[in-house]
Automatic annotation (TrEMBL):
The keyword GTP-binding does not apply. Signal peptide: none annotated. PANTHER family: L-RHAMNOSE MUTAROTASE. Pfam families: rhaM. Keywords: Isomerase. One of its GO terms (biological process) is rhamnose catabolic process. GO terms for molecular function: L-rhamnose mutarotase activity. It comes from the Bacteria. It is an enzyme of class 5 (isomerase). Its EC number is 5.1.3.32. This is L-rhamnose mutarotase.
Length: 110
């Protein structure tokens, strides 16, 4: 399953968001991988638009596995202040986008 989602970082907090993601806690990286997050990337625009991409077996299940960890709760609490909607955990505010084209899929069908 390929998943793309968007969210919004407060423009004034973009430098801090970039700094934190340049050195994500090693234990957080391991937890994400163990929870089934593969080929996970984040893309950030200058206006704060955040786009994420992840490959997993089941996105809801992968998110639920992360939600069970104290480590994720700590990360989400620390990151929440950097997002436009700082009243919720950032990973609860992801707006999932619908994939409408994939080159490999179409080539395979062709």
């Amino acid at each position: 399953m390929r998943v793309c989602f968007r969210s919004s970082v407060k423009p004034s907090h973009i430098p801090e968001y970039r700094r934190r993601h340049a050195a994500v806690w090693p234990e957080m990286l391991r937890e994400l991988k163990a929870a089934g997050w593969n080929n996970y990337s984040l893309f950030l625009a200058d206006d704060g638009l955040l786009v994420g991409y992840v490959e997993c077996d089941d996105f809801d299940a992968a998110r639920a596995r992360m939600a069970l960890t104290d480590l994720n709760a700590r990360w989400q609490a620390e990151m929440a202040l950097l997002f436009e909607n700082d009243a919720q955990a950032p990973d609860q505010g992801f707006v999932q986008l619908t994939e409408i084209f994939n080159l490999e899929d179409q080539l395979f069908r062709g």
